[in-house]
Amino acid sequence: MECPLCRKRPARRPCPALGREICPACCGTKRQREIACPADCRFLVTALAHPAAVVRRQQARDLAFGASLMRSLGPGQGELCWGLLGVILSFAGDPLFRLEDVDVIDAASAFAATMETSSKGVIYEHRPASLVAQRLVSELKAWLEEAGRGGARIPDRDVQAVLVRVADSFKDARRASGPEDPARCLGMVGRLYQAAGESARHERDGASLAAPGPALIRP
Fold first, then answer.
1. pLDDT for res 52
2. Taking the CB of the first residue and of the last residue of the chain, which one, N or C, has fewer CB atoms within 10 A?
């Protein structure tokens, strides 16, 4: 029987999410991406317990990047960091704008420089070079203003420290990987968020599985 997804390979693997058989290739590549796999799927359980070597290497790189983001940040600053990164990810998902790592670096660096200048009593706005980065700064400012309305105002020094940490982490990762993927760091942040979300979902469902991401990262 032909796989109903790719219509190329024979269907040999029962898929509980679709209620029919699919090919092993589609099961492996579309799992939790295009297919909403239930937590008790035996193929998902096996994949999470024994990920392929390429997946393990990617997880290690993601974890190292997450640790770099948290380096030298206090608990409150760490939560703020993941909040700002959530805004960045939401902006990256806007089809009207193509956000790349260099835009995040540009926006975070300019925003941090503006806050540093302001702390010295000088009102001067450092503007990013690209229009996309400028719009990202506006989104970050709006989120911070909204967050400040819900409770105690977030200290400027904490915001500045987090912005500098984000910019430096993105720069370091870019130097280590080269220019082949213009959104490599954004991809790592997205996978860390996804892993944390899957871990929370498994906990809510009462599943005993651990998501493939680092448990200490809870955006």
1. 67
2. N
Which whole-number Å values give the CA distances from 53 to 24, 50, 127, 192, in the listed order? 17, 9, 43, 18
Q: What is the pLDDT of residues 14-25, one digit of tens each?
A: 999 999 999 999
- For residue 36, the tally of other CB atoms under 10 A from its CB is 9
| Residue of 105, 120, 107 lying closest to 156 (CA atoms) | 120
Non-local (6+) Cβ contacts of 138 within 8 A are none
**Most confident among 42-56, 131-145, 201-215 (mean pLDDT):** 131-145
d(C-alpha 99, C-alpha 94), whole Å: 9
Return d(Cα 174, Cα 182) in angstroms, integer: 9
Burial of residue 86, with CB atoms counted within 10 A of its CB: 0-12 exposed, 13-18 middle, 19 or more buried: middle
Element (H, E) at 136: helix 131-149
Query: For residues 108 and 214, which has the higher predicted lDDT (pLDDT)?
Result: 108
Tens digits of residue pLDDT in 68-94: 999 889 888 999 999 999 999 999 888
**Coil, helix or strand at residue 10:** strand
* Distance between CA atoms of residues 204 and 194, nearest Å: 15
